[in-house]
Amino acid sequence: MRVDIVTIFPEFFQVLDVSLLGKARQDGLIDVRVHDLRDATTDRHRTVDDTPYGGGAGMVMKPEPWGQTIDAILDDAAGDRGAPGLAVADDAELADARPLVVFPSPAGTVFTQATARRYALEPHIVFGCGRYEGIDQRVFEDTAERARVELVSLGDYVLNGGEVAVTAMIEAFGRLVPGVVGNPESLVEESHEDGLLEYPSYTKPALWRGREVPDVLLSGHHAKIAAWRHEQQLERTRRVRPELLPPELG
Ligand code: ADE
């Protein structure tokens, strides 16, 4: 899978060299390429922003560096895919083959585990990290002429820019890319995978600071353990995130 990231803070993404994702990159499972938006500027100050038309506080990211950088990435990826396959593709296949360009934004649809599962299946995603008051609206419209464009929010709060959001999204879908997590079973029994919060976990010692591990987990009785865990999931979800419960369980 190929991931391109456009940012004015390329050094921010050194974090992707470590841990599970660093290993996935080394193993060639995820090919991450980071692009400095300022490389597409032509003035001495490498300017990427300007004042908003219509007035108001803050600065807006200029369209030209974005257009040039995204074009270069999409042209390069089209070259990688090669032309022969496209010659036989029908319209539907062509539409599906268009790369996905994601702009993190508090004005976007909320990123969930379902989004992560969908992104993990994409062959190529481009992330555009905005800063300041956002990116000139025409960049989204122009990019949508050759790619699928999504504005995606991490949640109902405002970050200074898209970099943290992109890191979180890559972490969430990267671990779902086949081969990245050694034991895929460990992905199944997690919060949100079945729509519920996960059950509490325990390990040795069985007694710690006077606190015991629940008896059922020491019983070796698999059906009882599964039932206990499911009950814990329901109880926790009902208490902490009742809006996640399907009506018949609420
Ligand atoms: N950029 C600024 N705030 C954001 C948010 N909540 N989610 C995604 N990107 C953002």
Proportion of residues in β-strands = 15-25%
The helix-strand sequence is: EHEEEHHHEHEHEHHEEH
- What is the CATH superfamily classification of the largest domain? SPOUT methyltransferase, trefoil knot domain
Uncertain ranges: none
Label the overall shape. elongated
In the sheet with the most strands, the strands line up as 2-1-6-5-7
Largest sheet: 5 strands, parallel
List cofactors, ions and other ligands.
adenine
- Rg, rounded, reads 22 Å
Q: Regarding CATH, which class of the largest domain? A: Alpha Beta
| Helix share bin | 25-40%
Total DSSP E strands: 9
Oligomer: single chain
Structural class: alpha/beta
Furnish the topology, listing elements before pairings.
Layout lengths: L1 E6 L11 H8 L4 E6 L12 E2 L9 E2 L1 H19 L2 H5 L2 H7 L2 E11 L2 H7 L4 E5 L8 H7 L4 E6 L9 H12 L10 H4 L18 E2 L2 E2 L9 H19 L10
Parallel strand pairs: 1-2, 1-6, 5-6, 5-7
Antiparallel strand pairs: 3-4, 8-9
Helix pairs in contact: 2-6, 5-7
Adenine binds next to strand 5.
Walk me through the structure:
Residues 1-245 form the tRNA methyltransferase TRMD/TRM10-type domain. With 250 residues, the protein is of the alpha/beta class. It has 2 domains: 2-82 and 97-175, Alpha/beta knot (3-Layer(aba) Sandwich); 189-244, tRNA(m1g37)methyltransferase, domain 2 (Trp Operon Repressor, Chain A, Orthogonal Bundle), CATH 1.10.1270.20. 35% of the residues lie in helices and 17% in strands. It contains 9 helices and 9 strands. The chain has helices at residues 19-26, 63-81, 84-88, 91-97, 113-119, 137-143, 163-174, 185-188, 222-240, and strands at 2-7, 31-36, 49-50, 60-61, 100-110, 124-128, 148-153, 207-208, 211-212. It has a 5-stranded parallel β-sheet with strand order 2-1-6-5-7. A two-stranded antiparallel ribbon has the order 3-4. A two-stranded antiparallel ribbon has the order 8-9. A hairpin with a 2-residue loop joins β8 and β9 (211-212). The longest helix is centred in the N-terminal third of the chain and has 19 residues, at 63-81. The structure holds adenine. The site of adenine has 11 residues, from β5.
